Every structure is written in C-alpha cells, then in structure tokens.
Amino acid sequence: TLPTGGTITGVVQTAAGTKLENVFVTLTSDYLNITDEITRTDVNGLYAFYAMKSSPTSDYVVTIYPEDQGYPVTERTGLNVDTNLDNPTSIDFNLTKGNQTTISGTVKNGETIATNVKVLIYKNDIRIVSVLVDENGAFEFTALNSTATYKLKFTTRDKTLKHYSAQDGSSVESIDNAYSFSTGSVVNFVY
Question: Would you say 187 and 107 are in contact if contact means Cβ atoms under 8 Å apart?
C-alpha cells in the first residue's frame, strides 16, 4: 500500500526565475519529532517531501541551503500540510543575492594600505576559508550563512602579522578576544 499523508513541495529559484538545482532542503517538525527529512532540488529547482502527517501545531520548517551558489540559507516556518493527496502544500523560494551574505573590508598598516595580507574567516572558531587582499587592501567573503557570526584573522607571509579583529577594527592577538561579526559587516582593520 502507498503511504498516506500530505505533500510539501516547491521550487527554489532566483528572483529572476533561474531554477537552482542540487540545493539541500530539510524539513523538520518539533511536535512530530521529525529531524531527518532531507532532499535536494532537481534540474527544475523542484523539491518534495511525501507522506507527511499533519502537525496540530503547524510547526513544520522548510530550510534551504544554497550557500554554494551564492545565496543565503533561508527558512519558512509555521507550516502545515494538507493530508488530502490532491492538495499539496506549495512552498516556493525566490532568492536574491545581496550583501546579507558577505563580510568585506580593508586592511591598513597604520595609514598605509596593506596588500600582502591574507584574511582568514572562522565560524565557531574553525577556519572555513581565506582570501588575499587586493591591491587596494580590500577583501570580501561571499556566500556566508546570514544566521551565523564570524571572526577574522589577518596574517602576512612573514608571520609578522597574525592577529584578529576587534569590533572597532583594531588588532587583538587571541581568537577569544576577537569580535564575532555578522554578515553585512564592513571591517576596516588597522595594525
């Protein structure tokens, strides 16, 4: 026999209508103790969860994880499912890129633009990626999780600089004293 229950389905696409393929999608419900429903979007940006029970508290949460394509993690909360098989619950996502998933800034050695600096970014005190500053001393991290915070470390090849940024862009030696920046921050680091 086929499993009974409702369907939650939808499309993940850009604001311009480009369908996003291979995006992780999760479905959770605290009330129903659902924590492990995971799928990916297909070539048409479509995802679906089948045979879902109705939640008396309407607490289904659909979360998409398109960070690798430059878009923010996005969730829809307070959802329920219609267990009538002819009436799937449709939850579409129309995504826009924006500065909400970036941390950018500049690096100066006193008043001088620093160009030989590598910037490393940490999430939960674990290094995730690094970039080199450009000829204007500027750097940018993109496709970050807009719900997380990040710490920045600045290093030079000769290791004379290996410091973290405080909230005001000043230099601190320990990751414990480093400021946790949210996405959208502009950090003008001076050492």
Answer: no
Segments in the chain below pLDDT 70: 1-4, 98-100
> Dihedral sign, CA of 145, 146, 150, 153?
positive
Q: Helix, strand, coil % (nearest 5) of the chain?
A: 5, 50, 45
CATH superfamily name and code, 99-190 = Immunoglobulins (2.60.40.10)
CATH architecture of the domain covering 6-95: Sandwich (2.60)
CA distance 1 to 23: 30
Separation of alpha carbons 1 and 85, rounded Å = 14
pLDDT tens readout for residues 121-169: 999 989 999 999 999 999 999 888 878 899 999 999 888 899 999 999 9
- Rounded CA-CA distance 64/27 in Å is 9
CA–CA distance, 140 with 104 (Å, rounded to integer): 4
Q: Structural domain boundaries of the chain?
A: 6-95, 99-190
Asked whether this chain's domains 6-95 and 99-190 adopt the same fold, the reply is: yes
Task: Compute the distance between CA of residue 88 and CA of residue 180 in angstroms, rounded to an integer.
Answer: 41
